[in-house]
Amino acid sequence: MSKRLESRLARLALGLSAAFSIAAASAHHSARITYDMDTVIEIQGEITGVTWRNPHVRFTLSSMGDDNEPVTWNVESIPVTRLDRVGITREMLGIGDTVTVAAYPARRPVRDAYAINMLLADGREALLDTPVARWTDNTVGTGLDETPGTPGADPSLGIFRVWSTDGSFLRTETRFLTEGGTLDYPLTEAALAAQSAWDPLDPDNPFLTCIPKGMPTIMQQPNPVEFIDEGDRIVVRMEEFDAMRIIHMSGDAGDQDAPPSRMGHSIGHWEGDTLVVRTSRINWPYFDQNGLPQSEDVETVERFTVNEEGSRLDYELVVTDPWLFTEPVMLGKSWRWIPGDAVLPFNCADDQA
Q1: Is residue 39 included in any domain, yes or no?
Q2: Do 236 and 91 belong together in one domain?
Q3: DSSP assigned state of 173
Q4: What is the pTM of this model?
Q5: C-beta of residue 144 within 8 angstroms of C-beta of residue 164
Q6: Residues 115-131: tens digit of each pLDDT
Q7: CATH code of the domain containing 108
Q8: Based on the domain organization, do 184 and 307 belong to the same domain?
């Protein structure tokens, strides 16, 4: 790793250290980082506590261990905003209810788990983070990381509206679909070494907190996003972390004097009906949540295009970073328009008291 990049990562860790703790499993993170998603366990127990808020719903289960002694499991699932959209409510998790969960166990030797299915006390099965029922056809929820409902179509609205996640892109490990469907990035030797040395369970990992991600990682977020026309600039509101980006549309909005920031400095222009955005001056040091740092030379070019029917917003992202990649990398995803959907307050909280 270059000394310049190493220094940037050290400064980030120092600056954020007050927000981190060893017990940060309760904060926002990639489930794949914290849990063994190749293993599913079943836990039956009594609900003894529920925390119904972002970044993740959490509850405690009192269960019996292998030695017939009571043990407590700390279980989490997807954020409140997503559960609300698929019809799973706080009232379904009553204190004292006996439930069964199918869950991914924690990678660490603790009784933490990430629930994907839950057999409720009333016999229904809640599909939390999978569309596949495990015990019964009497289900509630969709189990998909996307907004349910009927997609709409109106080309006259253009880009300036709320767009909801097309959950298909989440079926890859990086939450982006790379060109050609491969996840094998053209990494430099330095990037390969940095990735090999990365410990996702290190408490200084910023993805274990409520601190908003920066570019381009933030564009992976699976929640609704809104584009707002403010004349000489476009505001992009994202539900996750209540994040916001500013795209300067004025030709004199040069980036030479702009200070580096987590979101970088973005300049946009129109190519027909496609919004093209170039972003530089990014000081967020991670390309993704899988251990790939990026350098201060990283630049992105994004293209946002509404399809002819006005029902889908297609997204193309090209990332150039000579330290990270041997050649530019192209990624993509899409959103769809669900009439009436909104960007909801995320109100992320690290403490789960």
Answers
A1: yes
A2: no
A3: T
A4: 0.76
A5: no
A6: 999 999 999 999 988 88
A7: 2.40.50.140
A8: yes
Count of domains for the chain: 2
Give the chain's residues under pLDDT 50: 8-29, 169-175, 178-181, 351-353
* 82-139 residue pLDDT tens: 788 778 888 999 999 999 999 999 887 789 999 999 999 999 999 988 889 999 999 9
Residues 190 and 135 in one domain: no
Judge contact between 71 and 25, C-beta under 8 A. no
CA angle at 333 for the pair 330 and 334, rounded to the nearest 5°: 145
Beta-strand ranges (E) seen in 6-53 are 41-51
Other Cβ atoms closer than 10 A to 95: 11
Range of the domain at 51: 35-140
Residues 6 or more apart whose Cβ sits within 8 Å of residue 15: none
Last residue in a domain, options 115, 140, 165: 140
The pLDDT of residue 167 is: 55
Tokens of 239: 């539900």
Same domain, 158 and 95: no
d(Cα 255, Cα 267) in Å, to the nearest integer? 8
In a domain, 347, yes or no: no
- Kindly report the backbone phi and psi dihedral angles of residue 137, in degrees, each rounded to the nearest multiple of 5, phi listed first: -85, -5
